[in-house]
Amino acid sequence: MSDFLKDYAREPVPVDKRRSWYSFSLVWIAVIVCVPVFLMGGQMGNSLSLPDVLLVVMGAGICMCVIAYPISLVANSCHLATGQILRITFGNRGSQIAAFILAAGSFGWFGIQLEFFSKGIHLALIEVLDVDISEKLIIIIGGILMTITGAIGYKAIEKLSFLSIPVMLLVIIWPIFSLSEHSEWQNILVSAPPEPLSMGIIAGMYIGGFSAGLAVAPDMFRYIRNWKHSVIGLSVAVLLFAPFIFSLFAFYTRLTGEGDIFSVFMVLGLGLPAIIMVALSAWTTNDSNLYSASLNFSAIFTRWPKWQIASVVGALGTVLALFGILSQFMSFLLFIGIVMMPITATYITDYFFHKELYKTFTVQTFRFKNWIGLFVGFIVGVSTLPLDQNGLGLMSLSTVPPIDGFIATVITLIFINIFWKEKNATIPA
């Protein structure tokens, strides 16, 4: 039983347990195909022309890879979970705050995905089978199933991804075969969006939505053989698959006039496939959310086995979904980006100045200078976030607030590391 649940939450992944780029790319594709992505694709379809959707996703994807490639370098140097990397970056005491922030982000995504899951299944069951099951009951059942597999860890995520990806891809591309029934589809390719928004805001929403996944990406990267496999696997998912999937759902939204994936598939007469896709996509992605949340909490609650922490987190996330976190979805996306990106920037920058600490898993008591860089990045991100998105709106830099915070943290830490030579006590890892 202990071997079955063994997930190396507080130690490096052994060499014989590491995977190839192919395995990693399937896991990331399964994470990308999720209900909030369908919603973002719909938002893009209503806010941008389809060529602009492709341009934004490609551009934002390149930005994500520029950030993710160094993350993979950090993770592949030590093969540790994010929570353990944060112990090196912020010190044994300071890491608990950062780990809690990252765990809260994954925890929030778990609740959002679960609520999306319940609403989609509820609607589809009524439309297709004329069966009315309470959304709250669906949340509870879905939460239990997702918690069981999420508690097992990477092995379960990998197996579930292998099984679900072919089915989901078939369902996603199936509506293309019905285009002959919609004669206006060619005009949609060049028509103006009905509710235009700036490309910067959409790019910020896209990057913000995935920033939680980027910040905890070492939880996945640590299982990959080396940096080359990590780069190839991530590039396939983010630069090839993501532009295709977002553009396709933006197109479906413009074609049907519906803003959510469930209604889109109902209009296209694909109710039963919609049920299958929503169930699989929410399950695979929420396994990753629960997995990362429990790993980061494992860095805080060191006496509990990871599977027990995952069980508690899954139960609390289910309660969160029952209380309706979905109503705060869009604000949550941008806020998470503002908080997560400076944390990511901090451990990336610190790695390049102190590689020996990461390769030897050397943990100090408290590393104050890295908190300065994180704080500066957070302030810059909030300052560039528009007022109508719950920010301060004091200035505009790249037009993508999460990237502003990331860059500010990197620049701050470069100067700090040049002029500040830290001295701190080292404790056993």
Properties at a glance:
single chain, 429 residues, mainly alpha, Hydantoin permease, two-stranded antiparallel ribbon
Describe the structure.
There is one protein chain. The protein is mostly helical and 429 residues long. It has one domain: Orthogonal Bundle (Hydantoin permease). Helices cover 74% and strands 1% of the residues. It has 18 helices and two strands. Strands 1-2 form a two-stranded antiparallel sheet. Helix 4 crosses helix 15. It starts with a helix and ends with a strand.
Order of helices and strands: HHHHHHHHHHHHHHHHEHHE
Specify the helix fraction band: over 70%
Q: What is the strand tally?
A: 2
Computed structural class: mainly alpha
CATH topology call: Hydantoin permease
Largest sheet: number of strands, sense, barrel closure: 2 strands, antiparallel
- Overall mean confidence score, pLDDT: 84
CATH C-level category: Mainly Alpha
Q: Beta-sheet strand percentage?
A: under 5%
Strand order of the largest sheet: 1-2
Sequence-ordered SSE layout with sheet pairings:
Blueprint: H1 2-5, H2 21-32, H3 35-47, H4 50-78, H5 82-129, H6 135-152, H7 154-173, H8 185-188, H9 199-215, H10 218-221, H11 227-256, H12 261-267, H13 271-298, H14 306-322, H15 329-353, H16 355-359, E1 363-364, H17 368-384, H18 401-419, E2 426-427
Antiparallel strand pairs: 1-2
